[in-house]
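Regression test case RT-17, inverse folding.

Input:
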């Protein structure tokens, strides 16, 4: 996720900008807020945020001074000026120091959302270009590219995973700190912003990779950025994800999952997301390997379990329906009759009668 900080001497203004949009949903993490611009300036080198939203008129240091001194110190964060005053001189100064945007108070939610979306696209594109260059040539072209790539990591570390994932529908999971870049040869490159993201990332991989032959490796952390290209080469070599796609294993894993979770209201989208397959490919693969549709397989599991419950206890039919994943009692009844030829109540009576007759026969013997 991209990192953002807010600087304003008015506490209510800081609260307002934090709450005006859902920053996490937009792909941003609010890492800190400052009511003192001097403290904000001293922290910028340590924090290295992607974006700084700052007020203009603040005691001790104006927002424009904050931008100017940051640029002089080599800080390349994107700045957005927020002000209650439409001031031509301020606007001209903002342009001089490469300020991304100038927003007037009171803030408009849609304007803020539009600005952050433009910022997100710009920053992601910049990082993408640097990573592509590293991946294709193993070289870093200039100092600016170094800064962009460093800003993509947390505490000056970068974690990269490379995989041939053309058959998988990998989500951009913000909570996993993953950014995905599709390379020209069909390979995917994943940028993980912190070490803490490695374990959940590979756990998600393994959940969908029961069918894959995966050998993985993690390079040692390097003390300096100058060794990144070597580290990258090591990562590619040690993580030879030579995936031998085994459809049978994937389908088997799906069947096990359905057998264990039939009582829940499972949707095709939920199942496809869990196994990182598109809905269309999931349905085609399942039908090809089993001869029946995924929906048909799930229905069969539910109906057989429902039949067992109807015979084994006297629970109301509506309760039985709920226990096998149907919240709509009427729909359950229609599916059951189509499957067995009888309504649930009629089926229960027939089975109970058959059991009684069998017991009488045993007594007569």
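Golden output:
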């Amino acid at each position: 996720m991209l990192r953002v900080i807010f600087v304003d001497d008015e506490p209510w203004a800081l609260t307002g900008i934090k709450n005006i949009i859902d920053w996490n949903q937009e792909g941003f993490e609010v890492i800190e807020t400052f009511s003192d611009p001097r403290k904000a300036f001293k922290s910028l080198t340590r924090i290295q945020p992607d974006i700084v939203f700052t007020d203009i008129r603040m005691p001790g240091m104006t927002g424009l001074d904050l931008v100017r001194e940051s640029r002089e110190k080599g800080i390349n964060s994107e700045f957005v000026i927020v002000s209650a005053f439409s001031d031509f001189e301020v606007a001209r100064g903002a342009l001089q120091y490469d300020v991304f945007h100038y927003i007037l108070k009171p803030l408009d939610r849609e304007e803020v959302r539009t600005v952050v979306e433009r910022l997100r696209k710009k920053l992601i594109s910049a990082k993408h270009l640097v990573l592509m260059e590293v991946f294709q040539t193993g070289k870093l072209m200039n100092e600016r590219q170094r800064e962009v790539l460093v800003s993509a990591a947390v505490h000056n570390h970068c974690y990269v995973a490379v995989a041939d994932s053309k058959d998988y529908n990998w989500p951009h999971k913000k909570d996993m700190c993953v950014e995905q870049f599709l390379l020209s040869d069909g390979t995917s490159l994943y940028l993980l912003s912190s070490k803490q993201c490695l374990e959940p990332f590979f756990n998600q991989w393994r959940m969908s990779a029961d069918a894959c032959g995966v050998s993985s490796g993690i390079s040692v952390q390097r003390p300096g950025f100058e060794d990144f290209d070597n580290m990258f080469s090591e990562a590619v070599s040690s993580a030879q994800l030579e995936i031998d796609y085994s459809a049978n294993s994937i389908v088997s894993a799906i069947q096990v999952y359905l057998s264990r979770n039939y009582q829940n209201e499972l949707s095709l989208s939920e199942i496809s997301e869990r196994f990182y397959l598109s809905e269309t490919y999931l349905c085609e693969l399942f039908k090809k390997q089993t001869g029946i549709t995924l929906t048909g397989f799930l229905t069969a599991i539910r109906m057989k379990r429902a039949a067992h419950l109807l015979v084994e206890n006297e629970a109301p039919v509506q309760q039985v329906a709920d226990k096998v994943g149907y919240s709509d009692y009427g729909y359950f009844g229609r599916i059951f009759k189509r499957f067995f030829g009888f309504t649930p109540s009629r089926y229960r009576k027939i089975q109970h009668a058959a059991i009684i007759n069998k017991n009488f026969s045993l007594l007569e013997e």
